[in-house]
Amino acid sequence: MIKKLISLSLGLGALAVLGAGSVEDDTDYSSFDYSSPSYEVNYKTLADEFDDNSIAAESKYEGKLIYVSGPVGSIDKDILDNPYVSIRGEYDFASVQCFLTDDEVSGATSLSKGQRIVVAGVVGGTTLGVTLDGCKVISR
């Protein structure tokens, strides 16, 4: 019985960790000017800033629209079926997860792993890595 409870607790904990970056987002991103980012940064630089001092990086970036450049690491959906593109190097742990707007999902079908892109998005949660919400692909 105790083993079952421990297994259940571990399973629920794993789901909580996996779903931490997967929050339904009802924000209206149409009010953001995607042609005028607060910052333009490489994915590795952004991830390193959060790794070095997440308090300072959150203060600088959180809630701001930024451009992030780098290679596509994956194109997928999270456990809540939210589509995203991750930007990361092939042998790199640094990563930025970009949750796409509904309008951008069809465009993601033309992306491929390793392709260099620039995305625009609003810096959101940073608990399990840097995430951008309301993402649009600016250049392919």
Topology:
Layout: H1 2-19, E1 39-42, H2 43-52, H3 54-61, E2 65-77, E3 83-88, E4 95-100, H4 105-108, E5 116-123, E6 130-139
Parallel strand pairs: 1-2, 4-6
Antiparallel strand pairs: 2-3, 2-5, 3-4, 5-6
Helix pairs in contact: 2-3
Keywords for this structure?
140 residues, disordered N terminus, alpha/beta, 6 strands
Structural class of the helices, strands and pairings?
alpha/beta
- Major sheet description: 5 strands, mixed, barrel
The stretches of 5 or more residues where confidence is low (pLDDT under 50) are 3-23
Rounded mean pLDDT is 82
Number of helices: 4
For the record, give the distance between the C-alpha atoms at the N and C termini, rounded to a whole number: 54 Å
Helix content: 25-40%
How many strands appear in the DSSP assignment? 6
How much beta, percentage-wise? Answer: 25-35%
SSE string:
HEHHEEEHEE
Radius of gyration: 16 Å
Strand order of the largest sheet: 2-3-4-6-5
Shape: globular
Report on the architecture of this protein:
By secondary structure, this protein is an alpha/beta fold. The protein has 4 helices and 6 strands. A 5-stranded mixed barrel has the order 2-3-4-6-5. The chain is globular, with a radius of gyration of 16 Å.
Describe this structure in a few short sentences.
The protein is of the alpha/beta class and 140 residues long. Helices cover 29% and strands 34% of the residues.
